[in-house]
Known about the structure:
The protein is mainly alpha-helical. It has helices at about 1-25, 40-60, 145-170, and strands at about 105-110, 115-120, 135.
Amino acid sequence: MKDIFLLFIKLYIFINIFLILSDEILLKDYVPPCNLDTVALKLKKDSLELSMHLERYHAAYGHYPSEKQGLRALIEIPKFDKIPENYKPMIKNRSAILDPWGTPYILKFKTNSDDFMIVTLGKNKIPGGKGKNMDFNILKGIPKAYYTLERSKQFFNIVFFPFLLLSKIQDD
């Protein structure tokens, strides 16, 4: 019985390693358009909604909020730079300008351009970082590094956990 169980564990490990490696080879540059993770869903929703509200602001007032005004100009009248006449908030919910970790998104513009970026500081809420802590423009999608962390956890669970079970069985 013990031999059958060991064979089953080895087969399980082999199949999962094969699937992971084939996924890396066949889908090397593929990043899923939508991860069902709630953080990924919020980032996608926010990118669509905030860009739409910025375009509405531009259509209503003839310009975008400045970087200094930021996305806060969508929820309350700006106190400096260009202050629109007859201001009305574009968004009523203050949490709409917060990333999934509760930090306000940062509005940035490319030099001498109306092309805007909406940047999150990531999970650690400070500039810089790697993986889920990296800063990125949510309008460009979620970086590969975001998914790589999940994949490394998956690899550990699939490959190393059964080895821990095997070592436990062999000790008994």
